[in-house]
Design a protein that fits this description.
The strands form 2 sheets. Strands 1-10-9-6-2-3-5 form a 7-stranded parallel sheet, with helices on both faces. A 3-stranded antiparallel sheet has the order 4-8-7. The longest helix has 21 residues. It is α/β, with parallel strands linked by helices. It is built from 7 helices and 10 strands. The chain is about 30% helix and about 15% strand. Helix 1 packs across helix 2. The chain has one domain: Rossmann fold (3-Layer(aba) Sandwich). The protein starts with a strand and ends in a 7-residue tail after the last strand. The protein is globular, with a radius of gyration of 17 Å. The structure holds 2-amino-2-deoxy-6-O-phosphono-alpha-D-glucopyranose. The site of 2-amino-2-deoxy-6-O-phosphono-alpha-D-glucopyranose has 13 residues, from loops.
Length: about 240
């Protein structure tokens, strides 16, 4: 779906999430959201906060699982996705802290495999992700599933692509400060979501969006795996869609 602007598109995406949260409330069920970081979802979070404050949208039945976190990374660090999520969403809505799940960048290396398996189990035990929000990196990554990520991959530690570290360098005051690794949900974790919305804004995403939507399905562009998902939508502004 192509919109004129990211603002307009973000409102539509936030509206879909709000409708889902409310429909689960009517059924007395939890709403399981898979959430993303980066600049792309910021306006969606802004709109959800506005709906909470002005329209009384409650997050009391919302459980969230974030896609990824840098490794190693403390929660207090301003570059952490933990910090990002609290700053943009969690601090401003009535979600219960125990319902927030973000990969923990402080787990010791020897315990990471078990930690990642537990993250998967927690998603499964929650009933799976109802709605997964995604951005896309210039390498074609979703979460931090860099080129080479297998369709069957689960939550794990990965090595960040050089391009991804270049793109993150402004947040970290230089590439040398960007972590070399991250914890990410896997491609299969993402593909098991009942509904997926990938958002991309701006001209610098146009090439990867063309490869993702019109290119062959390949682990070299992990976002292409979404082509086979039965309920995935790409929400684009006119600039990100300009090479289609
Ligand atoms: C990071 C995140 C991704 C995100 C990507 C794009 O790499 N791990 O989940 O999609 O950035 O970021 P932006 O939305 O700022 O372009």
């Amino acid at each position: 779906v192509i919109f004129k602007s990211a603002v307009e598109a973000s409102k539509v995406v936030a509206q879909e999430i709000a409708v889902l949260i409310k429909s689960k409330q009517v059924e007395n069920k939890f709403c399981i959201l898979g959430l993303a970081t980066g600049s792309s979802p910021i306006k969606v979070y802004e709109e959800l906060v506005r709906m909470h404050k002005e329209d009384g949208l409650s997050f009391h039945n919302v459980v969230t699982f974030n896609l990824d976190e840098y490794y190693p990374m403390t929660k207090e660090n301003r570059q952490s996705y933990h910090y990002f999520m609290h700053q943009h969403l969690f601090n401003h809505v009535d979600i219960k802290p125990e319902n927030i799940n973000i990969p923990d960048g402080t787990v010791v290396l020897e315990e990471l495999n078990q930690y990642c398996m537990n993250y998967e189990t927690k998603i499964k035990n929650a009933g799976g992700i109802d709605f997964q929000l995604l951005g896309i990196g210039r390498t074609g990554h979703v979460g931090f599933n860099e080129p080479g990520s297998h369709i069957n991959s689960g939550t794990r530690i990965i090595t960040l692509d050089h391009i991804t570290r270049v793109d993150a360098s402004s947040d970290f005051n230089g590439i040398d400060n960007v972590p070399k690794r991250a914890i990410t949900m896997g491609v299969s974790t993402i593909l098991r979501s009942k509904r997926i919305v990938l958002m991309a804004w701006g001209q610098n995403k146009a090439t990867v969006i063309k490869r993702t939507i019109q290119g062959e399905i390949t682990s070299e562009v992990p976002a292409t795996f979404l082509q086979n998902h039965s309920n995935a939508t790409f929400v684009l502004d006119q600039f990100a869609a300009s090479e289609l």
